[in-house]
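To assess whether the prediction recovers the assembly geometry, we first specified each molecular entity separately, as shown.
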Amino acid sequence: MAIDNETIKHVAHLARIELQQNELEKLSNQLHDIIGFIDRISKLDVENIAPASHILPISNVLREDNPQVSLTPEKALENAPDKKGNFFSVPKIIE
Amino acid sequence: MELNQLTAHQLLDKIKDGSITSQAIFDSLYQRVNKIDDKVNAYVRRGNLERTGKESGSKSELLGLPVTIKDNICTEGLNTECCSKILQGFRPPYDATVINNLKRSGAGIFELKANMDEFAFGSSTENSYFGSTHNPWNLDCVPGGSSGGSAAAVAADEAIWALGSDTGGSIRQPASFCGVVGLKPTYGRVSRFGLIAFASSLDQIGPITKDVEDAAILTRIIAGYDPNDSTSVNQSVPDYTKSLTNDIKGLKIAIPKEYFVEGMDPEVKAVVDEAVNKLKGLGAVIKQVTLAHTEYAVPVYYIIATAEASSNLARFDGVQYGYRAKSDNLIEMYKKTRAEGFGEEAKRRIMLGTFALSHGYYDAYYLRALKVRTLIKQDFDKVFSEFDCIVAPTSPSAAFKIGERTSDPLKMYLSDIYTISVNLAGIPAMSIPCGFTKNKLPVGLQIMAGAFNEETIFKVGHTYEQNTDWHKLKPVIRL
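The predicted structure of the complete assembly is given in tokenized form:
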């Protein structure tokens, strides 16, 4: 299938990546080639095949909901680019 | 031989008989790193560290023996950046489970981390924010990837042994290119807790070592159930060294015909054919089989792996850790942080994965890929109902030149053609050295077995190794 610049722009917005014009064109060409290659799976008949959502026969792994000691706020915030008190700090969201 | 040239099991014997200390091993490694790593670049962030090592005095099994760790495995207080600008300065507040297991067994964690493709996206280690690693056998060639730093460090005797991670071949292919041993364990065998996720349904941590015995030892130490990883399997871990029996008489080995066709370097084919003959000579029963859906493995992989990656890498947004771009607007801050923090291949894969999961394309790509994944797994199930293991080349070529494939991502993706199916099927596989090309570049032999049957892999690998000398050869590094 063809992948045009508008699709690339939309996907870049979904992925929250700002692309420069030259990156946009290069990516558009490369993704076009890669998707063209990937499209070969479309010729297989998979009508009655179950999807491999998990490769091991494991499902719904549950545990008791018991309180445990975990990271302290200080440790959890150690790597924060910006913080205030016990919170991560980000640019203002609401005016 | 110098201490840094020995295997872990040889060094353990020497520590036990009191002839050396673990401090002396650290010293010899640092000496080697200081001497050659400006050329090899197996380790990252070499400048800002005191290379002291430490005498642990540990009485536990590994007696203070140093282990090299890939830059995507969390080590408490020790930078773990996935060789990406976006994780600049990240110091994990906790250890990965494999690191806990190693420490509990008395290992010393080597303070330098191993180079890799950014977020393990690549087959050559050229996508590292810290620059490419060079292959110790020929410095103009890539070491393979993404665990290229771990494999090159072991091959160049800058590490005794190492941990890597394997999502589509990232342990086995660099092990093959660097002439060392590398195992991807069964999915669920080793905890992924603290491994910075690339594709959660495919990732596994595994050993890169100088011989099969070391791989057997290290696998047992890192394997096992972990409540912190709900995909790890609660099944007892055997003592894999018990499988090192040097006997494969009557063992049934399958050779998949799809792995010996177009696109394969004839020199690699000749070397692998010779290795298969050797196994036959040692008493194995060899028969050709078919893995009919092999041609779909690469396309399926690049849908599933990038879809999972696009989701996993959403967490790198400049809020909790790593790099943050300056902006007054939150959405713009996310977009600029990710634009400036991710390298080219990371952006490409996030874009491809986001596309495959986006509205209108999900059924045609992601869902369809999961169905083909079932077919690929069924191919393997069928073979393992009749055979003990499968033997094939690890890679269609030996190490290629640095820069040769960077301009064509699709060509780079095809270098994983023989390793990817194993991750899709969740089974274990190991690459061992089995010869050289005319240009003196190593070739790897891949041994695959059914889920949780690492024992057969170790048995076959060890038997081959005991009857050949390839694993004993060492590269001479031009300084």
